[in-house]
Amino acid sequence: MVTLVVATSADPASIGPASSLLAMPGWHPGPTLQDAASYTNKEVRLIKLDKRLVVENHLDKRWEEATGETVDDVVFLSKHVASSNRPALTIHPIGTPHLREGEALTAGGKPGWAAPPNPRIGPWFRLLKNIANSHNLVPEFEVIQRNTLLLYNCIHCSRKLRLYDDD
Predict the structure, then answer these.
(1) Which residue among 75, 83, 102, 158 has its CA within the 20 to 30 Å range from the CA of 124?
(2) What whole-number distance in Å separates Cα of residue 65 and Cα of residue 74?
(3) Which residues form a coiled coil (predicted)?
(4) Beta strands in the chain (DSSP E)
């Protein structure tokens, strides 16, 4: 099983964290998916797309069909703008469960549907809270949506993300 990290050149806030990850040791070129380059590092796959992420439905299924690798988690790297217009770091599941069948979508996805939330959301929220506290930031909460369709656990990370590797 692999974790699929998804970045897009259509979003500079996505490419920045992706480039930082790829600058770490252990990355190697991976398979292409519909002309998109990918990279591998142990059980992590990072794919760089050209389209906006909200139009990339079923990436997990498409990856599995193209590579034969089972996708356990999907992590999207992208930019969000808070209603306060202040930079924000967000972690959230994807979907539009608040819409009914037939209602108009502002982006991709399916009305009334949400991906199963990733069990890592809780630990990542606690880590985010600790980082915010250490920088004297004020926690704010805002409801947002991400409309991409996926079959498996998903987590969406916005803005800057630093991963720590214990080995």
Answers:
(1) 83
(2) 15
(3) none
(4) 2-8, 28-29, 38-41, 44-49, 71-78, 91-92, 153-158
Two structure tokens written together for 135: 């920088």
Domain architecture of the chain: domains with CATH? 2-158 (3.40.630.50)
End-to-end CA distance of the chain: 19
Q: Residue 120 in contact with residue 72, Cβ under 8 Å?
A: no
The amino acid sitting at 98 is: H
Residue 79, judged by CB atoms within 10 A of its CB (0-12, 13-18, 19+), counts as middle
Going by C-alpha positions, the residue among 47, 144, 147 that lies closest to residue 91 is: 144
Q: What angle do CA 35, 13, 63 make, to 5 degrees?
A: 30
Q: pLDDT tens digits for the chain (167 residues)?
A: 999 998 988 877 788 889 999 999 999 999 998 889 999 999 999 999 887 766 667 888 899 999 999 998 888 887 665 666 666 666 767 777 778 888 877 666 778 877 777 777 788 778 888 888 888 876 665 544 444 444 444 444 443 333 333 33
Q: What is the pTM of this model?
A: 0.73
